[in-house]
Design a protein that fits this description.
The chain has 114 residues and is an alpha+beta fold. It has a domain of 73 residues: TusA-like domain (Translation Initiation Factor IF3, 2-Layer Sandwich). It contains two helices and four strands, in the order E-H-E-H-E-E. A four-stranded mixed beta sheet has the order 1-2-4-3, with helices on one face. Helix 1 links the parallel strand 1 and strand 2. The longest helix is centred in the last third of the chain and has 12 residues. It starts with 37 loop residues before the first strand and ends with a strand. The relative contact order is 0.20.
């Protein structure tokens, strides 16, 4: 089991299918995303791991920041927004990414609660 200490650095994205908790700087997200914007790429992950990684990333963000989560697991397009909303976060939208092979979706969230 690995442990990590709290960090003052913002959450960033993981490489697709990467099994470690390593994260890299995010790329710009959709317009009007407030502080950030941040992208978390969890392609290659399945539920519930998509939500676990998303929750960890959101915990590191300031209130009001936007997070774009990229998934390729179709059930995550329903489960991740539902779980995030139940947790108190704002779901901005779910969009299929055109031209992605295999299929991928962007789930845009805004942090509303700690």
């Amino acid at each position: 089991m690995t442990s990590s200490s709290p960090s003052s650095s913002p959450p960033t994205s993981s490489s697709p299918g990467e099994s470690s908790d390593a994260r890299a700087p995010a790329s710009p997200g959709p317009p009007g995303t407030g502080d950030g914007p941040y992208t978390l790429d969890v392609r290659g992950e399945i539920c519930p791991f998509t939500f676990v990684r998303t929750k960890l990333a959101l915990e590191d963000l300031p209130i009001g920041a936007a997070l774009r989560v990229i998934v390729d697991h179709e059930p995550a397009t329903r489960n991740l927004p539902r779980s995030s909303a139940e947790w108190g976060q704002e779901v901005l939208g779910v969009t299929e990414l055109a031209g992605s092979s295999p299929r991928a979706w962007a789930i845009d969230l805004r942090k509303r609660v700690r």
